[in-house]
Amino acid sequence: MPTAVDDPLWVGVDVGTQSLRVAVVDTSGRLLGHGSRPLTSRRGRAHPGGRTHEQDPAAWWRAFGEAAHAALDAAGGTRTVGAVALCSTSGTVLLADRAGAARGPALMYDDARAAGEERRAAEAGGDLWAALGYPMQRSWALPKALWLLATADAATRRAAARGDLRLAHSADYLAGRLVGGPVNTDFSHALKTGYDVETHRWPTEVLDRLGMPLAMLPDVVRPGTRLGEVCAEAAAHTGLGQGTPVVAGMTDGCAAQIAAGALEAGRWNSVLGTTLVLKGVTSTRLSGGAVYSHRHPDGAWLPGGASNVGAGSIPSRYLRGDLARHDAAAAAYEPSSAVSYPLASRGERFPFVRPDAEGFLLGTPRDDADGYAAVLQGVAFVERLSYEYLAQLGARVDGPVTVTGGGSNSRYWTQLRADILGRPLHRPAHPEPAFGMAVLAAAGTGSLTITARRMVRRAETVEPRAAVTARFAAPYGRFVEELVRRGYVDATATRAAA
Question: Among 11, 148, 391, 483, which one has the highest count of C-beta atoms within 10 angstroms of its own C-beta?
Fold first, then answer.
């Protein structure tokens, strides 16, 4: 349906790892403009805790200005922007002063230097983290914030205690640059900083034990809450009109879930990238070691889990060739002669937590195409087991399933996943997190679910082939039985697979 020329536009921003992306969307969900600029990182092993990963926040701001101008120019016209919202990688943090300027590099979402601080945080808040269902990890924001304090000089620590220096997530930093000063954060970005999403408060008793001054932490608001307006300097830098509302965003994973339209109980989004990530909606918070939950802006919960299998499980020899040709050859092996659990490296996070888990191959593929087919099918087996695990936890999994991520660009693999799951899979028209933030910007503090119904469009539905689904019953049973035999899952999974 065409949009009236006086209807506002909505801008979403995604601060990724390799690029910053801006989307301009109209009220009906049409993508009118898109801009992107690359980002670079500094990686190393400078600290005994683990690998380091940093980015320069000033580079985000430069990229934002260029990408925003490109997106707004592509959208054309002079229509007003109703609001802008930003998402960023979960767990990326930096220190910023009262003017909003960065005081050092950002420690990225996968920076693993804070090993000692992880242990301290785990000990100080173990009961709380267990109750909330998210065990502390060194790459999370709280251990990194503790590391920043522990390695700072005395003057910096005093400034943090006074609140003259504040912890900022990536999206907070850029929102602050937009409005001309520090802003509140949202409860999605705050989760990995230790925020209690159950009671909506910073756990002061845990933070006191850790020596973390509450004054350095931002206030926390619901996503969609107005943070301020675009200031004159930011308007000139980005092309956004001065006075444009800036609203609180969410993490990039939640933003992708919004873009997929998976915002009602029973709906799920499977993101098949390097790893396989499932995100959905439940009316109550799930309790399970392999799942942790964000809060839904509309009041429910957004549980999710990330497996270590995915497109990264495909051996490099196939990636150097023509994947479409490999897909066509794999279609001759449904099912494969072998049953694969294609872990790319040791350890699994979902649908079970086993740091010692190892991949396996039952049987011998007849040729290279058969081996490739076993990998694709193995990833789909993990996806099926994941939905069964979620159902065991009490989640509804009977709603529509959307598929996003680079692996979902393979038409054959998507068909295979639909067959093994035995259910239709839907592709959203614009699965990018920046689009999801434009939807959130349009919703503001109103219903995100209702807004997404209007703006999120479906591009394609892939139906399962019943005859093929039946063929995979036996190999899937062997897959689950082997997981049980190795002690990775219990016998209830075998009964679910029967």
Answer: 11
